[in-house]
Design brief:
The chain is an alpha/beta fold. The chain has helices at 19-27, 47-60, 77-82, 94-104, 106-115, 125-128, 168-177; strands spanning 5-9, 35-39, 63-66, 86-89, 119-123, 131-136, 145-147, 154-159, 184-187, 191-196, 199-205, 212-218, 221-226, 229-231.
Length: 232
């Protein structure tokens, strides 16, 4: 059976000059010069974000490509994504990204690529998307709202930037406690969780201060537990 990997980052990666998490992702491919496709939909295909990705590819030895949708240049998205070793989804507005993806059929193309063994990863919105639900600031910066229409490749919900932004942790606890979100995994900036298929394999971090957590509902309250984290 084809190996299927998803790496969900709380923050970090090339946008933060973080080679540790990026190397962890590309090592999963076994390729010396992996083909990495950046999907910047959540940022509105921001040119500066794409340029940062392309610059990072030079030092990392990646073979880059970019899937833009606001000015779409790829006719057959399924075939394009299926040719990659890694699909790397950037941060930004999760809700807008998912809506745009569904209009262009990116959701089904991502599922087919994952089933074929392409490594899926992403940061912030690019981590939220793989789960059934997430805690998001898509409806206003500094807020924490429940978003229940993720791709659902992974069960439960996800929260990025857990200790990095003031509202993330208390907001997630509120949403879990009220039942607005299902049980969650939360990651700090520079921490990530790795799934093989739909099973959590481990949490990793490129910064020793970064943590990963499981937040569950018990008796109408959120209960937080640290996940073991392997330093990269």
């Amino acid at each position: 059976m084809t190996d299927r990997h998803i790496v969900a980052m709380g923050g970090g990666g090339f946008s933060e000059d973080d080679t540790g998490l990026d190397r962890f992702v590309t090592d999963l491919t076994g390729a010396a010069n992996p083909r990495v496709c950046f999907v910047p939909t959540a940022s509105g295909d921001a040119a500066s974000y794409v340029a940062h990705f392309e610059d990072a590819c030079v030092s990392r030895g990646w073979v880059p490509s970019v899937l833009t949708l606001f000015e779409r240049r790829v006719a057959d998205i399924g075939a394009f994504l299926g040719e990659q070793d890694v699909i790397y989804v950037g941060g930004g507005n999760t809700a807008n990204m998912l809506a745009i993806w569904r209009h262009h059929g990116v959701d089904t193309a991502l599922r087919a690529a994952w089933d074929a063994g392409v490594v899926l990863c992403g940061v912030s919105a690019g981590a939220n998307c793989w789960f059934e639900a997430s805690s998001t600031d898509s409806y206003g910066i500094g807020r924490a709202d429940a978003l229940g229409d993720g791709l659902g490749f992974l069960s439960g919900s996800f929260c990025p930037h857990y200790h990095g932004e003031p509202e993330r942790r208390p907001g997630l606890h509120r949403l879990i406690g009220t039942g607005e979100l299902p049980d969650a995994i939360a990651c700090d900036d520079f921490a990530a969780v790795h799934f093989s298929g739909t099973q959590l394999v481990e949490a990793v971090a490129s910064d020793p201060r970064a943590g990963a957590y499981r937040v569950t509902r018990s008796g109408g309250e959120a209960v937080e537990a640290h996940l073991p984290v392997r330093a990269l």
